[in-house]
């Protein structure tokens, strides 16, 4: 069963900030980040149970970029709370 996906406003901001940063480093790198992010979001919607759970939230670490996707599954809806850079304070994960 494929789940529906909802990105919270903070997650959308996280993505835009990351894309802007990577594009400022090298043209096209932001697009590469988006491609990897989409791949992981697709994996999450197809099989959210494959990712670890801590305190009712689940986490998916991107492979190439130092980010994790913080999400929660309720029924057929997956809510993405943030696209969290590993250098940020983990106390503010969600």
Write the layout of secondary structure elements.
Layout: E1 4-7, H1 9-25, H2 29-46, E2 52-54, E3 57-61, E4 67-74, E5 77-85
Parallel strand pairs: 1-5
Antiparallel strand pairs: 2-3, 3-4, 4-5
Explain what the structure shows.
The chain has 94 residues and is α+β, with helices and mostly antiparallel strands. It contains 2 helices and 5 strands, in the order βααββββ. It has helices at residues 9-25, 29-46, and strands at 4-7, 52-54, 57-61, 67-74, 77-85. It has a 5-stranded mixed β-sheet with strand order 1-5-4-3-2. A hairpin with a 2-residue loop joins strand 2 (52-54) and strand 3. The radius of gyration is 13 Å and the shape is elongated. The model has no long low-confidence stretch (mean pLDDT 90).
Characteristic key phrases:
about 90 residues, single chain, 5 strands, alpha+beta, five-stranded mixed sheet, elongated, about 35% helix
